[in-house]
């Protein structure tokens, strides 16, 4: 039996380890364009994008970023051609099944954010299994936004809160930002302090609308399948140069 060496890559020396983001969120965009530029079908871009995400997760672990959230499928992405949607659903399921063992070995805690009930039932099973099996893991907090929409998330939180009021369990005066946050899919993780979007698009595309209120935004022209550790290093350097004022002077 060969034992796989754990390649722990150290934090680059120009980064300050006391000022790393505590939660990085990524909009993994540009898979289709990456494939198109190579004359390949879009789905191959998605397939390649999985490797990028896997390496970023490792990199966060190596460098000491404790939480990573990736946008994998938006509530609007159902509007894509059926063939692409079906490919993505199958890809998610296949990757989850394949990676669970390694996530356990690496102490990864995985969560899924979004309206999961609308996903294919075999994918829901795989999601439930991975969340359940990794729930005691104490390493990196890894979240995957799947059938996720920021507006949908806010609406479902309002509905849950309204129900509690209706049942007499909650007074409207007790609804504040903290309580609201408890009803979001992200209730167990801190809000992101850095948002990275690849492929140059300057928009949020319905991602974590509430949670990103004060996140620093970093956009790179690089397409998602080409986003590597060097790129992540650049994003972190840029983050560390920002002055975060939170409305103050
Ligand atoms: C992001 O890449 C992946 C998903 C939305 C699932 P795209 O598929 O949006 O790639 P582009 O933006 O068309 O290049
Ligand atoms: C955002 O990318 C959604 C994901 C990365 C999953 P899109 O490609 O769907 O966003 P738009 O259409 O450019 O806004
Ligand atoms: Mg896109």
From TrEMBL:
InterPro entries with a match to the protein in the record: UPP_synth-like, UPP_synth-like_CS, UPP_synth-like_sf
Keyword Metal-binding: yes
Enzyme Commission number(s) from the entry: 2.5.1.-
Entry's cofactor comment: Binds 2 magnesium ions per subunit.
Keywords on record: Magnesium, Metal-binding, Transferase
Gene3D superfamilies from the UniProt entry: Decaprenyl diphosphate synthase-like (3.40.1180.10)
Binding-site list for Mg(2+): 29, 216
MF (Gene Ontology): ditrans,polycis-polyprenyl diphosphate synthase [(2E,6E)-farnesyl diphosphate specific] activity; magnesium ion binding
Cofactor: Mg(2+)
Keyword Magnesium on entry: yes
Function (record text): Catalyzes the condensation of isopentenyl diphosphate (IPP) with allylic pyrophosphates generating different type of terpenoids.
Family stated for the protein in its record: Belongs to the UPP synthase family.
Xref: NCBIfam families: PRK14830.1, PRK14831.1, uppS
Name this protein carries in UniProt: Isoprenyl transferase
Organism: Gloeothece citriformis (strain PCC 7424) (Cyanothece sp. (strain PCC 7424))
């Amino acid at each position: 039996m060969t034992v796989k060496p754990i390649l722990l890559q150290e934090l680059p020396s120009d980064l300050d380890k006391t000022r790393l983001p505590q939660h990085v969120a990524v909009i993994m965009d540009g898979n289709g364009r990456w494939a198109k530029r190579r004359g390949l079908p879009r789905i191959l871009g998605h397939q390649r994008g999985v490797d990028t995400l896997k390496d970023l997760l490792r990199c966060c672990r190596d460098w000491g970023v404790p939480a990573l959230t990736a946008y994998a499928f938006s509530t609007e992405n159902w509007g894509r051609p059926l063939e692409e949607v079906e490919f993505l659903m199958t890809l998610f399921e296949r990757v989850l099944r394949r990676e669970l063992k390694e996530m356990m070995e690496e102490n990864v805690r995985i969560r899924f954010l979004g309206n999961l009930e609308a996903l294919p039932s075999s994918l829901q099973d795989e999601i439930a299994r991975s969340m359940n099996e990794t729930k005691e893991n104490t390493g990196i907090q890894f979240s995957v936004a799947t059938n996720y929409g920021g507006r949908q998330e806010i609406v479902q939180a309002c509905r849950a809160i309204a129900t509690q009021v209706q049942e007499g369990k909650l007074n409207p005066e007790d609804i504040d930002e903290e309580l609201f946050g408890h009803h979001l899919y992200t209730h167990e993780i801190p809000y992101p302090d850095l948002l990275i979007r690849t492929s140059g698009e300057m928009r949020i595309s319905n991602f974590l609308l509430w949670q990103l209120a004060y996140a620093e935004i970093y956009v790179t022209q690089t397409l998602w399948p080409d986003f590597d550790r060097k790129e992540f290093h650049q994003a972190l350097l840029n983050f560390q140069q920002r002055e975060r004022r939170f409305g103050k002077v």
